[in-house]
Design goal:
With about 100 residues, the protein is an alpha/beta fold. The protein contains three helices and four strands; from the N terminus they run E-H-E-H-E-H-E.
Length: about 100
C-alpha cells in the first residue's frame, strides 16, 4: 500500500538582525496550504544583536517553530545547524528563506 499523505519536511530559516523580516517570513509560512502537523520551521539565529524570540513566540500558535542558535558566524553553517535541529529527520530537501 502506498502512503498518500503529504511528505514531512523542515523549513530552515537562517536569520541575523532582521526581526521584522523574520516575522513576515513566519507569517507567510503559517499561511501555507499544507497540514501543520506535516512540517516544522527551524529558525537559526546567526548571532545578531536583535532578539528573534518575540517573532518566533508570536508565530507559535500558528506553526511548529523552534530556534537554534549559531555559536559562530559562517552563514552557510546555519543550514547545517537547522538540519541538525530538525525533529523530522527527513532532510531530502532544505527550503531556505530570507
Amino acid at each position: 500500500m502506498t502512503d498518500t499523505r503529504p511528505p514531512r519536511f523542515t523549513i530552515v530559516i537562517p536569520t541575523r538582525d532582521r526581526p521584522r523580516r523574520l516575522a513576515s517570513c513566519l507569517e507567510a509560512v503559517s499561511r501555507l496550504r499544507f497540514p501543520r502537523a506535516r512540517f516544522e520551521a527551524v529558525v537559526v539565529d546567526d548571532g545578531g544583536l536583535h532578539s528573534i524570540d518575540p517573532a518566533v513566540t508570536a508565530a507559535a500558535d500558528r506553526i511548529d517553530a523552534a530556534v537554534a542558535r549559531a555559536l559562530t558566524d559562517p552563514r552557510a553553517h546555519t543550514r547545517d545547524i537547522g538540519g541538525s535541529a530538525s525533529s523530522r529527520r527527513c532532510a531530502d530537501a532544505v527550503i531556505e528563506a530570507l
